[in-house]
Structure formats: C-alpha cells, structure tokens
Design goal:
The complex is a heterodimer of chains A (about 280) and B (about 130). Chain A contains 11 helices and 2 strands; from the N terminus they run H-H-H-H-H-H-E-E-H-H-H-H-H. By secondary structure, chain A is mainly α. Chain A has one domain. Chain A has a two-stranded antiparallel ribbon with strand order 1-2. The relative contact order of chain A is 0.23. With about 130 residues, chain B is mostly helical. Chain B has one domain. Chain B has 4 helices and no strands. The longest helix of chain B has about 40 residues. The N and C termini of chain B lie far apart (about 55 Å). Chains A and B meet through helix 1, helix 3, helix 4, helix 9 and helix 10 of A and helix 1, helix 3 and helix 4 of B.
Chain lengths: ~280, ~130
C-alpha cells in the first residue's frame, strides 16, 4: 500500500469515527484506537497518540459552541481540571510501565462501560439544596433553557473530585477523553443536570488530554503521517455529527452503535489476552 | 450593581474562551492540512512504513525546537507536527485566558485554582517527564 492510499483510507475511517463518536457522545478518540489497531494494525502506542489529538480537536471544536451558549459551567470545569490534569500526568507516566496488552484489555473494559453509560437514564432534575462545599467553591450555577434560566446546586464534591482523578488517570493511560467517567462523576455523584454535565465534561476533555499529550509528544508517540488524516477526519466527522444531531434524535442509531462498540471492545480484550498487541 | 457587573464579565469570558477555542482548532487544522497535502505530494507514492512495530519518532518531531526548525525548512512532517503543537496549545491557552478573566473579576479563589491547573500542565511540559 502506498502512503497516499493509506492516508485516504485512514481519513475516511477517521471521518466515520468522528461521526459515530459525536452521535453516540463517546467522542472520536475512543473509536480511533480500535480503528487504528484492529483495522490498520498500527501499534497501540501510535494509536493512543493519535487518539489524544482527536480528543483535543473534538473537545475544543464542540466546546466553543457550548461555552458561548452559557451552558458550560466554567468554574466547575476549572476546579475539576485540577483532578483530571494531575490524573492525566500520572496516567501518562504509568503508561510507560504498563504492557501494551494490558492497556488493550483495560481499553476494552472502559469501552464497554462507556457504551453502557450512553444508554443510562439521564439526570434531568436540578437540585435546589446543595452542599456547603459547593457553595464555598462557587460551583452552583444556572443555564438557559426554553423555559428560562434554570438554577442548580450540587453536592458530593469530594466524591466527584475523586472519580475525576480516576478519569484523568485513564485518560492519560489510554489516550481517551474518558467522557463517560466524567459524566458519571458529575451526573450521578454531584447531581448536575445532564446538559450541564455533558458540555462541561466536553469542555474539560481538551485540557485533560493536553496534559498527557505533551508527555506523549515528547516520547515520540505522535506520528505526523498518522496524525494528519486522523485529526482532519475526526474533526470533519464530528462537525457533520453535530449538524445531524440538531435535526434528528439518534436514539435508534445509538443502540446500533452501542452493540457495534460492544463487539469492538470484546475484540480488543480478546486480542489483548492473546498478546496480539 | 456589582452583581450585574460580575455577570457581564462572566459572559465576556465565555465569549472570548469560545472564540479562542474555535480559532485555535481552525488554525491547527489548516496547518495540518497544508503539511499533509505537501507530505502526500512528496511521499504519496512511497510504501507505508511499518507502524506495527513501535519505533518512536526521531528528535526532530518530538521537541519544540526540532519541530520549529523542520517547519522553517519546509519539511512536510515537521509542518504537520507544528499544527499538532498548535492543537495541544489551544486548551492550554484557554486556561491562560481564564486566568486573566478571573483576575479581572478579582475572584481570588479561582485565580488560585486556575494557577494550580496551569502549573500541573506546565510541569508535565517542561518538567522533563521523559522517563
């Protein structure tokens, strides 16, 4: 295969990854890793490097719209980024000492978990009574809806912070945004309405990924020839996805993708157990 | 009155941060696209190197000065890598802007929180975490 055909096929694949990632809410990075390792037989370390870049591109692109609408809770994101960036740096350091097969198996587990999380019941309610710590840290906020401004308060700040640290470690170790864990921390632990938690999680992914991306770049995990089709493809796919999302409810698609992703996750774990990475 | 002023400032930061993120991604992808096209023109017909075995990138693509040198010399892969650096720098710049915003708002607590996040990222960048 020539470099030209490899790049074009990878570009098309990354476009699909960005589209699926955006429609399911999983993020492009999560789909890029199995695409590169299982389809293109690329070493998982190069795949992680490329996926991190895809996550940053995805996050920054989508966040720019949400932030302007005033849905994202910037203070909350900033506070929790302490946890995710420290976690991400730890994860990137751990990655050196972790065998690639173990990383593949762990990735499969997280992929299964993320697929399950996209099907969960979303937290729609806004708490009116929050914890004292949330008040001290000025984490309570409001966001615009069709029926006017909705104010919400939050609780379990400590638990949310701890889950975020784990999300950061996994993000640094696997090169993904770990959006599912971030949403779990904000949705289930801190009881934030899902519209705020998903956009704030998205907002944070860029910074979290950047924290480990610099480490990966310095270690030589980022190959320019893989990076360029992946970054451009995922961005294009995510853009198409966000346009489609405003026009349709991707509920059926979501179920189909979740089944597909479950197969991919099992394949990753199977190959990991058989030391194919 | 003071509260209204605070709210306005908050919204201003949101608009600035949103715009910054968008232009950052646009700049990065434009550089990556240019480098990519140039790379394909030069090497498109060559066979794909084996990515199955991890070799790691050479020093010219892993350090800021190396990448900058290569990009100045119009090396295609170094230009792509320059776009990659712009992409990684975008969220980091976003933190810097938030820091300025919180400082203007005189929100001491969040100035400190933002500084902590910035320090963690800068430490991992310059702290020689090349283990």
């Amino acid at each position: 295969m020539t470099i030209l055909s490899f790049s074009l096929i990878l570009l098309a694949g990354a476009y699909l990854a960005g589209l699926v990632g955006s429609l399911t809410g999983l993020g492009g990075g999560v789909v890029v890793i199995p695409l590169l390792t299982l389809v293109f037989q690329v070493d998982i370390r190069y795949a992680i490097g490329a996926a991190l870049l895809a996550s940053i591109a995805n996050s920054s692109g989508a966040a720019s719209a949400y932030v302007k609408e005033g849905i994202t809770n910037i203070r909350l994101g900033m506070f929790l980024e302490i946890a995710t960036t420290i976690g991400a740096v730890i994860g990137a350091v751990l990655a050196v000492y972790t065998p690639t097969n173990t990383i593949a198996i762990l990735f499969g587990v997280i992929l299964l978990f993320s697929a399950a999380m996209t099907l969960r019941r979303k937290n729609q309610e806004a708490l009116t009574e929050g914890s004292r710590l949330a008040d001290v840290l000025k984490l309570n906020g409001s966001y615009p809806t069709k029926n006017g401004e909705v104010h919400y308060k939050l609780k379990n700040v400590g638990a949310g912070f701890s889950i975020m640290t784990v999300a950061g470690v996994l993000s640094g170790l696997l090169g993904i945004g770990s959006g599912a864990l971030k949403v779990l921390a904000m949705d289930s632990a801190m009881r934030i309405p899902f519209k705020v938690s998903t956009t704030t999680s998205n907002f944070m992914i860029g910074v979290t990924a950047a924290a480990s991306a610099v480490v990966y770049l310095q270690r030589g995990y980022m190959d320019p020839a893989i990076a360029f089709p992946v970054v451009l493809g995922v961005l294009g796919g995510a853009f198409t996805g966000s346009k489609l999302l405003t026009r349709m409810d991707p509920k059926v698609l979501k179920y189909i993708f979740c089944v597909a992703i479950t197969f991919v996750a099992v394949e990753m774990m199977y190959n990991g157990f058989n030391h194919k990475f | 009155m003071k509260k209204v002023k605070g709210l306005l400032a908050d919204h201003d930061i949101e608009v600035i941060v949103g715009t910054l993120l968008r232009y950052g991604v646009m700049t990065a992808s434009a550089i990556v696209l240019l480098g990519g096209i140039y790379f394909l023109i030069q090497h498109g017909q060559a066979p794909v190197p084996s990515y199955h075995h991890f070799a790691g990138e050479s020093i010219g693509y892993t350090t800021f000065s190396g990448i900058l040198h290569g990009a100045m010399a119009l090396q295609a892969k170094a230009i792509i890598q320059l776009g990659v650096i712009v992409l990684i720098a975008t969220p980091i710049l976003r933190i810097l802007f938030s820091l300025i915003g919180f400082t203007l708002e005189k929100d001491k607590l969040y100035v400190v929180i933002t500084l902590v996040v910035l320090c963690v990222i800068l430490l991992s960048t310059f702290g020689g975490l090349k283990i």
